[in-house]
């Protein structure tokens, strides 16, 4: 009956997880914790868990049952962890004797690696600057990708902080708009600032288009005026070969 329940549990989508290949360790570890907890064997990885005592003739039947279950849970936990690794990592960690040894080895290697990733993402977020030669909203979305990557690394940025960073990163040509937004006493959400930026950007593009069209019309008028002037000059001066009056 217990085995049937475990199979049913593993077939459910919310406990399925991709094989860990060395990337996104924190996300994989969280999913692994959930699955092992659902299977009631995560306790095996408790660092304070005492080792299984050697069996003796004095052990009662109850103690023997507990020892047997503990051994089975150890084996099952180790198997589930190994089964959730890529083939390359499976071959690398299958030599570890226990589930706890595998778990600790993975944490030691990949937590340290992700700390470097976190520092890199934080630096990338603060160094990101908006440019005039790219659409503003496209740059906001690029910055949001970094925020999502930080979130995956368990670094949550408060929304007001992120909105403030977006306003601060606007290029110099948006100085007047930035000043107007900063003087707004109301708190602005991420959705609202994106809406405001879209409206402002569309307005700027429309004005730019109108100015370009106005310049074209002015050039056409100038060309027509020059043509008229040339024709006037040609009519004033006698043509070659004509008789002088």
Automatic annotation (TrEMBL):
It holds the Pfam family Retrotran_gag_2. This is (wild Malaysian banana) hypothetical protein. It comes from Musa acuminata subsp. malaccensis.
């Amino acid at each position: 009956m217990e085995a049937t329940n475990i199979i049913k549990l593993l077939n459910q989508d919310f406990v399925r997880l991709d094989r860990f290949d060395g990337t996104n360790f924190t996300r994989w570890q969280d999913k692994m914790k959930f699955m092992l907890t659902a299977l009631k064997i995560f306790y095996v990885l408790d660092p304070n868990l005492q080792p299984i005592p050697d069996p003796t003739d004095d052990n009662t039947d109850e103690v023997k049952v507990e020892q047997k279950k503990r051994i089975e849970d150890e084996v099952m936990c180790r198997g589930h962890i190994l089964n959730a690794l890529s083939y390359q990592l499976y071959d690398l960690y299958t030599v570890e004797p226990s589930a706890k040894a595998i778990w600790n080895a993975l944490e030691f290697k990949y937590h340290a690696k992700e700390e470097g990733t976190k520092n890199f993402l934080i630096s990338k977020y603060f160094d990101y600057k908006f440019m005039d030669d790219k659409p503003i909203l496209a740059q906001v979305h690029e910055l949001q990708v970094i925020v999502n990557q930080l979130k995956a690394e368990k670094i949550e940025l408060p929304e007001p902080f992120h909105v403030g960073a977006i306003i601060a990163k606007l290029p110099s040509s948006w100085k007047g708009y930035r000043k107007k937004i900063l003087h707004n006493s109301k708190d602005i959400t991420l959705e609202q600032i994106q809406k405001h930026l879209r409206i402002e950007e569309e307005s700027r593009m429309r004005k730019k288009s109108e100015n370009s069209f106005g310049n074209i019309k002015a050039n056409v008028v100038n060309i027509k005026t020059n043509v008229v002037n040339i024709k006037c000059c040609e009519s004033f001066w006698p043509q070659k070969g004509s008789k002088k009056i």
